[in-house]
From TrEMBL:
Name of the protein this chain belongs to: Receptor ligand binding region domain-containing protein
Listed transmembrane segments: 121-143
SUPFAM superfamilies xref list: Periplasmic binding protein-like I (SSF53822)
Superkingdom of origin organism: Eukaryota
């Protein structure tokens, strides 16, 4: 039905009758009195919209990938006639009608156990116990290398000065009074 609807919609758009897309009855009339030739077979609608022909149950899972007729439904007796059996592509066919973890993925079967959480916490803590000391060592090493490059050991020309034998500037620039025995004796 999807392919037939797509074909009718394309015809409406190509014939520049877009206003018909807003009118469901007009779109339905485009299906009347015509035959649709599809990959799955021909579908014919009469002037009232009734379908003529057989309905099919086809399969495409086969080795060739081609459509294979499995069952047909004739128009009059409405009884399904089997042509051949269905070939399922795997051992678990038909697939279960409910997902393993439920439709929302929250079934108890899929919940992680508390053991997994404990293992994850222990592994994370052990990793952090290794990473943080290593980062601290690297940081201390970088600070030490940076401080080794500073010229703290250079003495400027006017740092240690004797002013009349009583003052000297220390390396930190503060003046101190030096008193010798001679200065005290005077």
């Amino acid at each position: 039905m999807l392919m037939m609807t797509a074909q009718v919609t394309t015809e409406i758009l190509c014939s520049d009758q877009r206003h018909l897309l807003w009118d469901g009855a007009a779109v339905a009339r485009k299906f009347y009195n015509r035959t649709f030739q599809l990959r799955t077979g021909n579908f014919e609608f009469d002037r009232f919209g009734a379908v003529y022909g057989r309905d099919y149950l086809l399969q495409q899972f086969g080795q060739s990938g081609q459509l294979t007729l499995l069952q047909y439904i004739p128009a009059e007796p409405f009884q399904m006639g089997e042509v051949r059996s269905v070939e399922w592509p795997g051992p678990l066919w038909p697939v279960p009608n409910r997902p393993v973890c439920g439709y929302d993925g929250q079934d108890r079967v899929c919940w992680a156990s508390s053991v997994q959480y404990i293992e994850t916490a222990v592994a994370s803590a052990a990793t952090l116990l290794v990473i943080f000391p290593l980062m601290a060592l690297v940081l201390l090493r970088l600070i030490r290398e940076h401080s080794d490059k500073l010229p703290w050991w250079l003495i400027s020309g006017n740092s240690p000065q004797m002013c009349s034998g009583k003052r000297i500037l220390s390396c930190f620039g503060s003046a101190r009074v030096l008193r010798s025995r001679h200065a005290i004796a005077e």
